[in-house]
Amino acid sequence: MTGCAWGVVYGIMNGISNTALLPSAPFISIRPQIALPIVMGIIAHPVAGFLVGFTGNVIGDGISGFGLWKFWNWHLANGLIGFLPGMIRYFGIGKITTVRDFGILEMGVILASGVSVGIAVLLDYFFLHFMKFPESFPSWILPAFLTDSVNGFILVPVLLMMTGRLILTLEIRTITLITALLVMAILSTAVSTTWSVRDDLVSTEAMIEIFYLSGIVSVLIIFAGFIASIAFVRRITDPLSRLTRAAEDVEKGIYELKPLDPISRRNDELGQLSRVLQAMAEQVRTRENRLLLQVQELQIKIDLDRKAREVAEIVETEYFKTLKKKAREFRSS
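User: That's the sequence. What structure does it adopt?
Assistant: Structure tokens below.
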């Protein structure tokens, strides 16, 4: 399907989700479909992601009765949220196979959510004047950013996995598991905390304010926890990746494993495994050098034996015997 076709799908999904708007947010709904333009920008091209987001928001607003061009700033914002994550291809990322790739992907999703909402707000402030500041922050700006960033953060890796763009290597399995546990723990804590204090709040508005405040705190904690998770996972998977590459080098006949020196200095199991692999590689190199020397010596012996046989064969010929006899007669004459 082309970008415009996916834009129609995205628009229809926007129209459906706009029937259930967020509390106190007159135009913002929970939009899990926001992952669609982001994924299209990544797997196809940033321009394709922009087309899906832009055309889909136009169609969705039309279906919802908001008007096709009334909120054109949000059409641009939806286009940008599909365009910006697609730029990871210029970081040399094709398929996502490492913790580094995964970190750039997720940070790109959150950054795209913040930049797109920020641009929509600026365009409204200078041209449209629909928003009233600061009243629109909790009722429009914050809900838009929270829903886009959280939905994208959770759903984009799932869709990329389904399309084969995210490969379940050891690094990816580890970071996705930790990230999923982190997100579930923080979001469930935020929801339960908000729910537990509902009876102590004096109004529905107060509860909504607590809900969005919990959302902000949750996103910040997820962000910080994700950065910490990347550092933790790399601490584990980077040595394993080096060990894997070292094993591949040994298979290719490369026995100089200096890149493993930092790992070999560790006192844990990975350090022990690295030292064993280096020792094995050194033993293989020693045996291979010894074998090569033996082969060379054997080749020399074979060449000498061959020369001796060839000389013997020449000496035993009638022609050589005749020459030898004539030489003897010549010396005696």
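DSSP finds eleven helices and no strands in the chain.
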